[in-house]
Amino acid sequence: MARRGGAIHVYDTINHWFGINQMITIGSSYWNDGYNPNVTNQHEVEKDEEAKNTMKNLAENMAFVLKRIVRTN
């Protein structure tokens, strides 16, 4: 996960780049990734409840923004 891997600076830099290029970024309640410590079993990540809730929140936020974009065009 980004917070565990020290990638906060990279994430921040990418978001700044999106912002200065007038791109829409959609956030969630936490980092948008899942954690699977067992690389031999790809379904292990399905046990990561925090990741599943974060992705559900992200999907809802994306749907909200996309509906507004479509409505204004």
UniProtKB/TrEMBL annotation:
InterPro entries according to UniProt: Flavoprotein-like_sf
Domain of life the protein comes from: Eukaryota
Q: What is this protein called?
A: Ironsulfur flavoprotein, putative
In its UniProt entry, the species of origin is given as Entamoeba histolytica KU27
